[in-house]
Structures are given as C-alpha cells and as structure tokens.
C-alpha cells in the first residue's frame, strides 16, 4: 500500500469512526504500529487530524478536510438527501449549487433525472463555483453550466474571490442549494472558510428560494464563517437521524424541513 493510499484510508476511517488508535489502524491496514505513528504525526503536522496519546482525533469542529476525504462521511444519508433535493428542482430553473460532497451528490442526482437529461424538457441552468460539479455537468447537453470564475481552493475545488463575486452580482437564480459545515437556529448556516462563505452568501442573495442540504451531524453545530441567518433559509433537507430538538428550533424560524 502506498503512502498516499494509506493516508486516504486513515482519514476515511477517522471520518467514519470519530476516533482512531494506533493499534486498531495498524491492524486494519496491515502495517506496523510504528508506520501508523509516523503517519499520524505527519498528518497532524499538516493539520488534517489531531494527535492524541495512542491515537488521533479529527481536527477541530468545522475544519476543512479535502473534499475527497469527506466523501466517506455519512455517504448513505447524503445520497438520500441529494435525491430529495434534486426532486425539488423544476425543469427550466436557474439553479445555484455551492461546493461540497452533498451538493456534488445533488448534481449527480439531477444529471440522472430523465426529464432533465432528455431533449424534450426545458433546459436547466446550473450556476456553481465548484470545479468538480461544473466538470461533471458540462458533459450533459441539456444542462447549461455556468462557472463563476475566481481563485480555486485545492481542498474543496471551489472558486472564491472578487471574480466570483462579479459574476454572481449579475445573475438571478430561482433556487440556491447550499452545502454547509454547520446549521443552527441561532447561528444560521456556516462553513469553515470565510472566502467560501462569502460566495455562498451571494448565491443566497441572488436566489428566490434557498435550500440547505445537510446531514444530521451538521445540525446544531457551529463553524467559523457565517453564510446566512437561519431565517434566510426556506427549506432544509436532512436525514432521519436529526435531533428532534434541533429540528424544532429550526421550525420556529419558519423553515420547511424534509427528513429522508
């Protein structure tokens, strides 16, 4: 197993389990404990995990792991959420999609809808600042894909900065779908990076309807950079594992909540 493959496996295990000790990781990957200790030390230096006595923890709340390492987290829930969000989109809409694993799954679900993919229906316009989403949808002839421009962030494949702001200031959207790092009734929708939050905030401002696509682990959590207040969100699509108290607090903000 190569070093990069081993690191990817370690981060995916850590994302799935929430904590990882040296002996367990060594057993799972079939390598020595000394190798795992070195891996943990190096990944801690790169701020991709937190080293503990005998093991490792994920980095602090809202830390921005590379997108490829987030994909293993709650994959089944994200797929259910993605299909429910895609079902909300009407042919002919102008749709905004932020970056993230859940919104990437939404894009894939949209691409699989026969009424959007065939040549009979109205064309769907998708505006995104995510390079991977634009790449996936460009091959679909019935999708008009608009990329915002900006400076690419290697962790998330998202474009940020004044170039992105300039494009978004000139358009109008029917629906904006937000992938978030946290969603709380008091603090609103938030993410780990302030530049991404700024682009996402503008997407919300340009849309008639705002949909947050977030698995239950994001609810009641907090992240560094605020995107918008909870009151700016029209619909939340989440999974059935969501905390009832968190959902009740969000309903008080007049948010239409869909659990799948």
Based on the model shown, name its key terms.
alpha/beta, seven-stranded parallel β-sheet, globular
Gist of the model:
The chain has helices spanning 3-17, 22-29, 33-45, 67-70, 75-88, 101-111, 114-117, 131-138, 162-168, 194-205, 244-251, and strands spanning 20-21, 50-52, 55-57, 94-97, 124-128, 143-147, 151-152, 159-160, 173-179, 182-184, 188-191, 207-213, 225-228, 235-238, 256-259.
Strand order of the largest sheet: 6-5-4-9-12-14-15
Distance between the termini: 37 Å
Mean pLDDT: 89
> Mind telling me the C-alpha Rg?
19 Å
Question: Structural class of the secondary structure composition?
Answer: alpha/beta
Helix count?
Answer: 11
Low-confidence stretches: 60-64
Largest sheet: 7 strands, parallel
What is the number of E strands?
15
Helix proportion range: 40-55%
Beta-strand content estimate: 15-25%
Word description of this protein:
The protein contains eleven helices and 15 strands. The chain has 260 residues and is an alpha/beta fold. A seven-stranded parallel sheet has the order 6-5-4-9-12-14-15, with helices on both faces. A three-stranded antiparallel sheet has the order 1-3-2. Strands 10-11-13 form a three-stranded antiparallel sheet. Helix 6 runs parallel beside helix 8. It is globular and about 60 Å long.
């Amino acid at each position: 197993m190569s070093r990069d493959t081993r690191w990817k496996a370690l981060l995916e295990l850590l994302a799935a389990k929430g904590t990882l000790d040296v002996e367990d990781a060594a057993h799972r990957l079939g390598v020595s404990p000394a190798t795992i200790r070195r891996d943990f030390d190096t990944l801690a230096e790169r701020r991709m995990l937190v080293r503990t006595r005998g093991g490792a923890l994920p980095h602090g709340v809202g830390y921005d792991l590379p997108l490829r390492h987030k994909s293993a987290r709650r994959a089944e829930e994200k797929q259910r959420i993605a299909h429910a969000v895609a079902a909300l989109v009407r042919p002919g809409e102008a749709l905004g999609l932020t970056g993230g694993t859940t919104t990437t799954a939404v894009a894939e679900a949209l691409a699989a809808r026969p009424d959007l993919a065939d040549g009979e229906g109205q064309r769907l316009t998708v505006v995104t600042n995510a390079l991977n989403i634009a790449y996936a949808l460009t091959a679909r002839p019935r999708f008009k894909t608009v990329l915002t421009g900006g400076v690419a962030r290697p962790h998330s494949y998202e474009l940020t900065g004044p170039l992105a702001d300039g494009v978004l200031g000139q358009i109008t959207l029917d629906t904006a779908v937000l992938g978030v790092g946290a969603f709380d009734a008091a603090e609103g929708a938030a993410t780990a990076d302030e530049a991404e939050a700024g682009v996402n905030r503008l997407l919300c401002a340009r849309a008639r309807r705002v949909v947050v696509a977030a698995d239950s682990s994001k609810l009641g959590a907090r992240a560094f950079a605020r995107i918008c207040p909870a009151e700016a969100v029209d619909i939340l699509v989440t999974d059935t594992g969501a905390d009832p108290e968190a959902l009740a607090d969000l309903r008080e903000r007049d948010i239409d909540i869909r659990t799948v």
